[in-house]
Amino acid sequence: MNLSFFDQFSSPSLLGIPLILVATLLPALLLPSPNNRWITGRLSVLQLWLINLITKQLMIPLDKKGHKWALILTSLMLFLLLTNLLGLLPYTFTPTTQLSMNLALAFPLWLATLLTGLRNQPSVSLGHLLPEGTPTPLIPALILIETTSLLIRPLALGVRLTANLTAGHLLIQLISTATTVLFSTMPAISFLTLIILFLLTILEVAVAMIQAYVFVLLLSLYLQENT
């Protein structure tokens, strides 16, 4: 039984072909396509309102130079948001529970923000490695510490997203299994665990949205340091 708990995190396959690409592209297919009509439907209006809200929140800490990243950050936010929420549905696969995929999203974008800072303002970007007023004997140690903290940023982004989603999925499966097992022997306890499962599902919906926002927000803060 212990092994079956982790089967939900394995990439599904059909005839030996991994279906993770289909699971990754599915959220984009759910978005309504733009059209040239003056009067649009409620879904299109809701989509535009959500995109404007996300873009405004992400661009607040950035200056005008960082606004060039609006399309990338907003698209990433929508992708993570839809992927995390769709992964909470029964019999679905969540690509963002894979550490390799999260690192593939975090590392190139973090590297792009770093290279942007080194190209536009190299002295300021390198100045973050040594705080002003540091005592001379502590300079080598602080440079080493700041460099290490800089290099582990993409790893922290990927691990944070993977760990939070994986823990939530495991808790939901454990409590749902307990609810099913206890239903025939202790119906009252099973009903209590069902209530806990319902509350936990609401919490996981909030966690899925918050983690998508935190992932993109941290990238925007890294971009702010380098612009």
Automatic annotation (TrEMBL):
PANTHER family for the chain: ATP SYNTHASE SUBUNIT A
Subcellular location: Mitochondrion inner membrane
Record bears the keyword Metal-binding: no
Primary location recorded for the protein, binned into one broad class: mitochondrion
Gene Ontology CC entries for this record: mitochondrial inner membrane; proton-transporting ATP synthase complex
Transmembrane segments: 12-31, 43-62, 68-89, 101-118, 138-158, 170-189, 195-223
Catalytic activity reported: H(+)(in) = H(+)(out)
Pfam families per the UniProt record, alphabetical: ATP-synt_A (PF00119)
InterPro entries registered for this protein in UniProt: ATP_synth_F0_asu (IPR000568), ATP_synth_F0_asu_AS (IPR023011), ATP_synth_F0_asu_bact/mt (IPR045083), F0_ATP_A_sf (IPR035908)
Binding partners and assembly: Component of the ATP synthase complex composed at least of ATP5F1A/subunit alpha, ATP5F1B/subunit beta, ATP5MC1/subunit c (homooctomer), MT-ATP6/subunit a, MT-ATP8/subunit 8, ATP5ME/subunit e, ATP5MF/subunit f, ATP5MG/subunit g, ATP5MK/subunit k, ATP5MJ/subunit j, ATP5F1C/subunit gamma, ATP5F1D/subunit delta, ATP5F1E/subunit epsilon, ATP5PF/subunit F6, ATP5PB/subunit b, ATP5PD/subunit d, ATP5PO/subunit OSCP.
Family: Belongs to the ATPase A chain family.
Superkingdom of the organism of origin: Eukaryota
Protein name as catalogued: ATP synthase subunit a
PROSITE patterns the UniProt entry points to: ATPASE_A
Any one GO molecular function term: proton-transporting ATP synthase activity, rotational mechanism
Classification lineage: Eukaryota, Metazoa, Chordata, Craniata, Vertebrata
UniProt membrane topology term: Multi-pass membrane protein
The entry's keywords: ATP synthesis, CF(0), Hydrogen ion transport, Ion transport, Membrane, Mitochondrion, Mitochondrion inner membrane, Transmembrane, Transmembrane helix, Transport
